Amino acid sequence: MRRRLSAARRDLLSGLWTRAPFERRAARVLARRPHTAVVLVDLDGFKALNDTFGHAAGDEAIRATAASLNDALAEKRGAVAARLGGDEFAAVVPLEEPFTLPWLLNALHGAITSPFTYGGRDLTVGASIGAALSSDLTEKARPAGAAMLPVLLRLADEAMYVAKRAGGGWNYPGASEPRCTTTAGRRTGRPGTHAPHHREAA
């Protein structure tokens, strides 16, 4: 019984939390940490990857994305990541200072869009990332406790779709424009221009 309950809380493909346990943990983090980022990730080119290389390649992209999220958040104490379904992921990340949010998003985008290996090929998918910061909510707009999470998820979702319409990359309320990352940017952590959504890595 305990093993079945544990499996229900974890997504079987990615190993990340599923939505309900993620939301419970996220609400606790938001209640305790004053500067917390809520991040949504949607993979770009995922359907094309499935259509070209088959669903097993898509499964590998999901596993690679989960591993990239875990690696990128490994040193962020209290961070929680989840697969919400399909090719959509979420994370709640406590920050020491709010001005570090762009660095976090750039690192996440670079990690997620790095090549992964499938069938002897190095493949990549793109990513659109949106975020919202709890400390950016005004006192009037800041609900108490668990009610804060849906507000931040909505703002992160809106920011993510702005990034997606711009061709991918990352965005958050208050950003001057959506940012993207080049292959070189992935190596150096600098914002740049966006690489193709789905391709075989050179």
TrEMBL record:
Compositional bias of kind Low complexity: 181-193
PROSITE patterns according to UniProt: GGDEF (PS50887)
Residue stretches making up the GGDEF domain: 34-178
InterPro entries according to UniProt: Biofilm_reg_signaling, GGDEF_dom, Nucleotide_cyclase, Rev_trsase/Diguanyl_cyclase
Highest taxon above the source species: Bacteria
SMART domains documented for this protein: GGDEF (SM00267)
Region (Disordered): 177-202
NCBIfam families from the UniProt entry: GGDEF
Designated name of the protein: GGDEF domain-containing protein
Organism this protein belongs to: Streptomyces misionensis
